[in-house]
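Q: Sequence in, structure out?
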Amino acid sequence: MSPLLSRWRNPTGPASSGPGVRSGVPAGSAPYRATISDPDKRPLVAGLLGQGFVIAYQTILQNREATDRVATELIKAGELYGDDVTSLLDGVGLRKPDIDVLDEAVWPAI
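A: Exactly. Output:
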């Protein structure tokens, strides 16, 4: 049993069966803790995060001029909300990045 679960174990039943404990994670804990501590789910989460990172990186890289305009407008305005954000993003002409996952240059150096 993991140290996290054994620490919160209910003496009358399994770790997931006490008040304030759901899915083996104590109430008030980060909601993702049960997922990333699951050895079967951890690689899937890492893959999704990595995919999101590469897409975000390439979106910024391939839309450099538009990204700079967005940054400039945000700095000028201080903060934007709702329709102002939508209008700004629609107005700069962001485009979906073209990503060839087999090209090593696509992957950011970490």
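The chain has a mean pLDDT of 79.
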